[in-house]
Amino acid sequence: MSTTVAQKSIPSLTAGKLPRGTTPGVLVASVVVTGAVTALFGGFNLAGTVVGGIVVFLVAMYAASWAVEGRRKASDRLATHLVFGAFALALIPLASVTWEAVSNGVARFDVQFFTYSMRNVVGAGGGAAHALVGTLWVTGLATLISVPIGLMTAVYLSEYGRGTLARSITFFVDVMTGIPSIVAGLFAFAVMSILVGPGTVSGLSGAIALSVLMIPVVVRSTEELLRIVPNELREASYALGVPKWRTILRVVMPTALSGIVAGVILAIARVIGETAPLMIAAGFTQSMNANPLSNAMMTMPVFVYDSYAHPGVDVLPYTERSWAGALALIAIVMILNLVGRFIAARFAPRTGR
Amino acid sequence: MSTDTLPESPADVAPQPPSSLIPAKKRIGDSVFKTLSTGAGTTILVILALVAAFLLVQAIPALTTPQDQQLANGYGYFPTWIVPFAFGTVWAAAWALLLAVPVALGIALFISHYAPRRLAQGLGYLIDLLAAVPSVVFGLWGIIVLAPAMMPVYTWLNAYLGWIPLFGGQVSGTGRTLLTAAVVLAVMILPIITSLTREVFLQTPKLHEEAALALGATRWEMVKMSVLPFGRAGIVSACMLGLGRALGETMAVAMVLSGSDVITIEILTSTNTNTIAATIAQNFPEAFALKQNQLIAGGLVLFVITLAVNMIARWIVARRAQYSGAN
């Protein structure tokens, strides 16, 4: 009783709070204690210690905070720790995937990998040149199909679209975003089977499959950008007597151009790693095929899958090629992402807001 | 200028209302451009209709062929053959969602309300990078790295919680279990749920947050009282979109899961129910004739499931947009 009176008589700003540095201190202590206890019972392992230590830390901090600061502050601290923990947890797979791809892929990430195909290669050697050419063809054709349709649809939605048609297009573009990639592949395969002949696979067929996935992405990003072009610019153009179509082509689109380019690049990045639709629509091959209109065409993602799933007697060279392909694929997608974001940020339109 | 728009004959004047609005001259460029853009928009509707139509045409043999012929020439009688895979699709996606949602909400809160302002956007990009990793790379990572790494966890779960049917059975020796597939799927849908919920959390009216803080709420109480209630519809629809993605994801499951057509709820054993998408991917290259039709019909079933999930999600978003003051 007397002690509480004594404490109250000395007013302090830090009273009723855990001292600074408690959090990292308790964290280190809990991990060390957990490690020591598990080592004592002979069951030490690193991952288990870290996980166990974090659980001990959460409980210890909650108890300490409740004792000193009260229940509400204790829940606040627990929530903060969990939120930070969630973020840290998400970084583990990102770091792990990147590390594994780099460390395993670097063995075959050489000149031969990018200059040789897999024709007549058994065991070591060979490369993914045929898959690289295929990916360029398929993705290029998909871009050629998707960008005009996507761009014009976005123009319609932002400049012309009113009423039921515009609403239903917006709705179905959203629905299209959710089409499973393998269904897009089956669609392209079904189209080719009916129009050309049963069981036809080709680069063009793969491009059709990718277009189904790519169009909604292009529409979404472009429409958003056209909408943020200030109306003053359009009105200024109309006031000068410029027709609407020239206003769109010469005023609205150039203003949003950087964003549109960035959006297209990000859309390419999204579809270039698609595997399942290409496996079905473009097929497998070990040889170079530079004609997208006939015969199967290998692509990078399918190469990665095929190398891993159908190895020869000596498994190692196949797995190595698979990882090298994965590394190349990650590098391509990351570079496309960075370039897209750079263009979007660097050449962003002045919206006047 | 005005001479252009003057009426050519008195007959044109008669129906015009007495207004100062002079109709603009029709320009060929305008109508061509409008037709082109409307045509592009309509093309999208046509493509979507074609997707459904072509799949349906190719799937019909699987639905109309008599049962005995399906058993002889196909994978089995379609309506009963597809059931386990439909269950596996939903089962794996549900686990992925269960694992991903708490983490995704935590990350979204971290970026919108907890991280230092200056770092928040950069850290957001970091999470978006997860979405940039192709699914086949996740599949490779899942089977070579994750599956062996999860083995101790599975053995532990089975030993101590094995009395729960979920964790029961003989633990898989390779780690190629439904739980591993679900973890990979969870990692893949994490960035989608995160980016959508993050946007909703950032839209929370500042006044609500400041009012809560002014009443003496801690940061967590502020989040509970203003951010989460405001974002509830957004969270639900983000989860539905994540679910849609998990239902249709193919390669990661096809590579990681050693699937079969047995319906089982055990998630740690080597007997797992395969998903529709993975079944198609694994069998399509070798399939022909009726088998191909059956796989395409399976794709149609998957299409319908994801379409339903996505439509519900969009409907929730649209309903929210009507009463939300932030939009």
Features:
heterodimer; A: 353 residues; mainly alpha; MetI-like fold; 75% helix; flat; B: 327 residues; 2 domains; two-stranded parallel ribbon; 13 helices; disordered N terminus
Can you walk me through this structure?
The complex is a heterodimer of chains A (353) and B (327). Chain A is mainly alpha-helical. Chain A has helices at 2-9, 22-40, 46-69, 71-105, 111-115, 129-160, 163-177, 181-195, 203-228, 231-239, 244-272, 276-281, 300-309, 315-346. Helices cover 75% and strands 0% of the residues of chain A. Residues 1-14 of chain B have low confidence and may be disordered. The interface between A and B is large, with 99 and 95 residues.
Query: CATH fold name of the largest domain in chain B, please?
Result: MetI-like fold
Q: Helicity range of the residues of chain A?
A: over 70%
> Class of the largest domain in chain A in CATH?
Mainly Alpha
From the spread of the alpha carbons, the general shape of chain A counts as flat
Oligomer: heterodimer
Total beta strands of chain B = 2
- The string of secondary-structure elements of chain B, in order, is HHHHHHHHHHHEEHH
Highest-level CATH class of the largest domain in chain B: Mainly Alpha
Helix-strand topology string of chain A:
HHHHHHHHHHHHHH
**Stretches of chain A where pLDDT falls below 50 for ≥5 residues?**
none
- What does the average pLDDT of chain A come to? 85
Largest interface: A-B, 99 and 95 residues
Task: Give the strand order of the largest sheet of chain B, numbering strands 1, 2, ... along the chain.
Answer: 1-2
Largest sheet of chain A: none
Helix content percent band of chain B: over 70%
Looking at the overall shape, the CATH architecture of the largest domain in chain A is Orthogonal Bundle
